[in-house]
């Protein structure tokens, strides 16, 4: 995971903070040239260590890469780990670094430097979730960079998105997948650093998603906005394929926004969306796996945790850290401070009555908006959450 994220940061990052969309597969007129290795190249680079490395990474003298048309071996190799020797991990890392340095001298594949909103929303979620799981603030900061880029360079009036951006110019009205993935990214980022601006922006964009893409009668989510280009048939792609459908991610963000704000309008919109697809899901549930996962936010029991910390002290931070590391399912967390209390009062009115007990950082654990007694002790909090 770290290597994948490192690749995005190193090779796919725009100076302004977004991620570019793709690199070509071919360079110097041939597909895969940049990534393939002849065994003789590896022997020359690694010397006496080449044999062990070749065995571990399945490198053959005749190559392991087959031409896609003829099916014949090309004499080149794709490196993939076939034997794992834990005690050789550091040595293999050094040897891979030697190959990486040599590869950097090759002609790179062409870079497609468009920034696509939906794909950057996915990346935002990936970095935020990695930062949360690995307790790595650098990943959370990178997710924040993506969010700021989108909101500053790909937004019109804070509530309408553009599909793509290139060389400081944004274009094309965004599709429903752009809204859905960006909103989910913002919610994942809020779950890491609890900056209220991410929650504000996610609500504004979700309002636009609901207004311009969800049919008010059927509840179905369409790919294109109602004020977009007029088409013979307005498409609605709800099948979860290599990437989840916009409808599935929309259902998730509706459910999470309902729990974060207490606004029943999000639950109503989610229920309408589920009803609009119920017959299709019943016929072929395997095609709607992400939608079924997202339905947990509406159909199953959920928890809302509000940590109130008027003094911004270490106890509140300890509570938040423990909650994040517990990786609780169907749970949202809100962090209320003196600085954001007014904003939260407008966004999540149910938090108004939640106050610190004796000026201590205080946690309110609620299930389906029915709250247990507040606790100020970390051990008591975890006992409530894990019971």
Task: Give a written overview of the molecule.
This protein has 387 residues and is of the alpha+beta class. It folds into three domains: 25-108, no CATH class; 115-299, Glycosyltransferase, CATH 1.50.10.20; 303-386, Glutaredoxin (3-Layer(aba) Sandwich), CATH 3.40.30. It contains 15 helices and twelve strands. Strands 5, 6, 7 and 8 form a four-stranded antiparallel beta sheet that branches. A four-stranded mixed beta sheet has the order 10-9-11-12, with helices on both faces. Strands 1-4 form a two-stranded antiparallel sheet. Helix 2 crosses helix 3, helix 6 crosses helix 7 and helix 13 (314-326) packs parallel to helix 15 (378-386). The radius of gyration is 24 Å and the shape is globular. The protein starts with a helix and ends with a helix.
The number of helical segments is 15
Name of the CATH class of the largest domain: Mainly Alpha
Report the count of strand segments. 12
The helix/strand order is HEEEHHHEEHHEEEHHHHHHEHEHEEH
The Rg value, from CA coordinates, equals 24 Å
The major beta sheet can be summarized as: 4 strands, antiparallel
Please tell me the overall pLDDT: 94
Beta-strand content bin: 5-15%
CATH architecture level-2 label of the largest domain = Alpha/alpha barrel
- Tell me the helix content: 40-55%
Give me the CATH fold name of the largest domain. Answer: Glycosyltransferase
